[in-house]
TrEMBL record:
PANTHER family named in the record: FERREDOXIN SUBUNIT OF PYRUVATE:FLAVODOXIN OXIDOREDUCTASE, FERREDOXIN SUBUNIT OF PYRUVATE:FLAVODOXIN OXIDOREDUCTASE-RELATED
Protein name per UniProt: 4Fe-4S ferredoxin iron-sulfur binding domain protein
Top-level taxon in the UniProt lineage: Bacteria
Taxonomic lineage from the root: Bacteria, Pseudomonadati, Thermodesulfobacteriota, Desulfovibrionia, Desulfovibrionales
GO-annotated molecular function: iron-sulfur cluster binding; metal ion binding
InterPro entries: 4Fe4S_Fe-S-bd (IPR017896), 4Fe4S_Fe_S_CS (IPR017900)
Keywords: Iron, Iron-sulfur, Metal-binding
SUPFAM superfamilies linked: 4Fe-4S ferredoxins
């Protein structure tokens, strides 16, 4: 399974810091609002395959609204 990102929309304040640090530029502001009235961020399903699993977005998020799941690649002969 490729790397993927999940956004906890209930925690997102729409600060867009995650969009600034994403090296692939796939994170964007959505047209949806959360229950607190903030526009949330997203990665569209067709762009999720571009995620490198770097977790820069999660590290930058001040509200812990991002979970990153990285793909473990086989290194050193599949050990």
């Amino acid at each position: 399974m490729p790397s993927r990102v999940e956004f906890r929309e209930d925690r997102c304040k729409g600060c867009l810091l995650c969009t600034e640090v994403c090296p692939t530029g796939i994170i964007q502001q959505s047209s949806r609002f959360n229950q607190k009235g903030y526009k949330v961020t997203e990665i569209t399903p067709d762009m999720m395959s571009e995620c490198k699993g770097c977790a820069f977005c999660a590290m930058m998020c001040p509200d812990y609204a991002i979970n990153v799941y990285t793909t473990k690649s086989a290194k050193g002969g599949g050990k």
